[in-house]
Write a structure and sequence with these properties.
- This protein has a six-stranded antiparallel beta barrel.
- The protein folds into four domains: 86 residues, conserved putative lor/sdh protein from methanococcus maripaludis s2 fold (Beta Barrel); 89 residues, Efflux pump adaptor protein, beta barrel domain (Elongation Factor Tu (Ef-tu), domain 3), CATH 2.40.30.170; 57 residues, RNA polymerase II/Efflux pump adaptor protein, barrel-sandwich hybrid domain (OB fold (Dihydrolipoamide Acetyltransferase, E2P), Beta Barrel), CATH 2.40.50; 124 residues, Orthogonal Bundle (Helix Hairpins), CATH 1.10.287.
- The protein has four helices and 21 strands.
- The protein is α+β, with helices and mostly antiparallel strands.
- Strand 14 and strand 15 form a beta hairpin.
- Helix 3 packs antiparallel against helix 4.
Length: 427
């Protein structure tokens, strides 16, 4: 009996270790579950102030495709005036800003060589004209002498012919010998030949005189053409406007030496203006000649809001600094106060889409791109992020392909501060 009571209790320690291991395992499982739960918890939705956001609603209907760009008013008729001859600037009677006529002298040049050449050309012309007059007088005198010789020869021939007729009657009456008749006949024949020769010489003299006069006239014409050239060069020393308008630029100074071809002035007609728009090259691919355009001149007056209709007149074939120049011709009168170099805005109407979903264009929208945008839910208390497929874009609107429905309200403002959140609260 005593031995049974003193037997050692070995199973108690093992049970205690087992309970301790089970406890540690349970604690580990709880820690893991809590960690997983915490990792799956979403961050609290941030709050956005409605007053600082810009909203828009999805609509269905007609959407106008437009592109917009800044521009300036420029004259349609502009003349760049270059120096026609070499010279030194002596005087500038007109200054930029003045109204000019085609004959207004803008710059006066001096060139002694040109003036000397003109004087020599005029002297040569006058000498040539004098030689022509002298030659004409000489030839006319020679022709008159030749004409007198022809008349004398004809007279002698007729006298000899009459003498032969008289001799024939006398010979028939046996009053003169036959030899006298033969001699008179021979003399008459010789005088007739001499008369024909004098007539031919007179005719050839006329042709020769005409040729000599034509040659001398040709020389005179050469002298006259050279004189006209030299005279125009002298006139070119006074640089004129050439067209009516306003003198805009005059980049020369008194005393400056100019060479032919250098730009001396620019004259424009301010009443005839057009617009040069600068359209981004990515948007200008659909701009073609003839498309309707509206130009905002920002000039308001009685009965005018400053917006003038027009149409695309020309599209530049290449881009400069990422922009394409588009010329717009006006279809209506410009408001009073419109002048060259005035800054304007232009909108070109490209196309019209009927029965499409569209909304106001967000700042980050790109043509045919996918964007994530916040859609207003819960009656305006919150907004959730949705993915939207966009279509064609315009100046202020964008086509919606999928992701939104008619009547949906979205946030159009930049929401980059909410990146990482799929939901925001609206206060």
């Amino acid at each position: 009996m005593q031995e049974t009571m003193d037997k050692p209790r070995t199973g108690h320690a093992e049970k205690r270790r087992l309970r301790r291991m089970l406890l540690f395992a349970a604690i580990a499982v709880v820690v893991v579950l809590v960690s997983v739960g915490i990792s799956r918890l979403q961050p609290a939705a941030p709050t956005a102030d409605r007053e600082t956001l810009f909203f828009g609603k999805v609509q269905r209907g007609q959407m106008m495709l437009e592109v917009r760009g800044p521009g300036t008013l420029v004259p349609v008729d502009v003349r760049w005036i270059s120096a026609p001859v070499e010279g030194r600037v002596e005087r500038i009677p007109a200054l930029p800003g003045v109204t000019v006529t085609p004959d207004t002298v803008l710059v006066e040049l001096s060139n002694p060589e040109i003036e000397q050449n003109a004087f020599e050309a005029e002297s040569s012309l006058r000498a040539g004209e004098a030689d022509l007059d002298n030659l004409r007088a000489q030839l006319e005198s020679q022709l008159l002498s030749q004409q007198a010789q022809v008349a004398t020869a004809e007279s002698n021939s007729e006298q000899a012919k009459l003498q032969v007729e008289a001799d024939e009657k006398l010979y028939a009456d046996r009053l003169i010998p036959e030899l006298t008749l033969k001699l008179d006949r021979l003399r008459s024949t010789q005088l007739q030949k001499q008369s024909r020769i004098e007539k031919e010489r007179y005719t050839k003299s006329q042709s020769s005189n005409q040729a000599q006069l034509a040659a001398q006239r040709a020389r005179v014409d050469q002298f006259r053409a050279l004189f006209e050239l030299r005279r125009r060069q002298v006139e070119f020393l006074k640089v004129r406007a050439g067209i009516p308008g306003v003198l805009q630029e005059l980049p020369v100074q008194v005393g400056q030496r100019v060479t032919p071809g250098i730009t001396m002035a620019r004259v424009a007609r301010p009443e005839l203006l057009k617009t040069e728009l600068r359209i981004q090259e990515t948007q200008a691919k659909d701009v073609t000649r003839g498309l309707p355009t509206t130009i905002d001149t920002r000039i308001t007056s009685a009965g005018s809001n400053g917006i003038v209709p027009g149409h695309v007149d020309r599209v530049a074939p290449s881009s400069v600094d990422g922009s394409v120049i588009v010329d717009v011709a006006f279809d209506g009168p410009l408001p009073p106060g419109a002048r060259p170099n005035l800054s304007v805005d232009g909108t070109v109407q490209l196309d019209r889409l009927d029965n499409v979903l569209f909304m106001n264009r967000p700042t980050f929208a790109q043509t045919n791109g996918k964007v994530e945008i916040f859609k207003v839910v819960e009656g305006g208390k919150a907004a959730v992020r949705v993915q939207v497929q966009l279509g064609r874009t315009s100046v202020s609107t964008v086509q919606i392909i999928s992701g939104l429905q008619v009547g949906d309200e979205v946030i159009l403002s930049d929401t980059s501060q909410f990146d990482g959140f799929n939901r925001i609260r609206l206060d």
